[in-house]
Amino acid sequence: MTEDHYFSADPAAPFAREELTCEVWGHELRLVSGAGVFSRGHLDHATAVLLRECEPPAQGQVLDLGCGYGPIGLAIARAVPLATVTAVDVNERALLLANENARALGVEGRFIACRPDQVPADFTFDEIWSNPPIRIGKQALHELLLTWLPRLRPDGRAVMVVGKNLGADSLQRWLTDQGWPTVRLASAKGFRVLETRRG
User: Fold this and answer.
1) Within a 13 Å sphere around the CA of 171, how many CA atoms are in the beta-carbon half?
2) How far is CA 185 from the centre of its chain?
3) Which residues contact 86 (CB under 8 A, 6 or more apart)?
4) What DSSP designation does 132 have?
5) HSE (CB half, 13 Å, CA atoms) of 98?
6) pTM, 2 dp
7) Residue 140 host element (H or E)
8) CA–CA distance from 71 to each of 8, 17, 95, 173 (Å)?
9) Using an 8 Å Cβ cutoff, are 131 and 160 in contact?
10) What is the tens place of the pLDDT at every residue in 103-120?
């Protein structure tokens, strides 16, 4: 039997929903997570650090890369009336939950969760926010980032949270070497918040 990962397209684990509540940028978010989806039943530490250490974008088109059940993109949609969020994930169950959560929060008009291949090829973003799926492996992660970073608009930026012990500092150097200047915005609880801009 192969091990089931939250980055599987169709998790085999029985689909049990689990609710959680968190407060982000002054807004209470009541979310539903589930088995077979990353960070079931709680807001994971990395995402909590990202949302605590960064102010939300002022407006614009935002990509939530590797959205899971949607906490990052939904927090932005809830707090920023002038933001439109496209959330992508390969996990079909995560997408279902993210869209259900958007409806429950009343932001379904400005938040859509879909597979990466469903985003039009010419669609660009003002900001990319992500707790990236580090555990897919370095090569796959590098391919993922080099697929989406070029879709930033000229003055756009990406904000990511990565565990220090999972290679945050080497990722920062690698991105900069690839022509994507990356700086550390914050460091907390063993995590780095990185900001990447167009070179």
Assistant:
1) 30
2) 17
3) 61, 62, 63, 64, 73, 112, 114, 119, 123, 125
4) -
5) 32
6) 0.91
7) helix 138-148
8) 19, 15, 12, 28
9) yes
10) 999 999 999 999 999 999
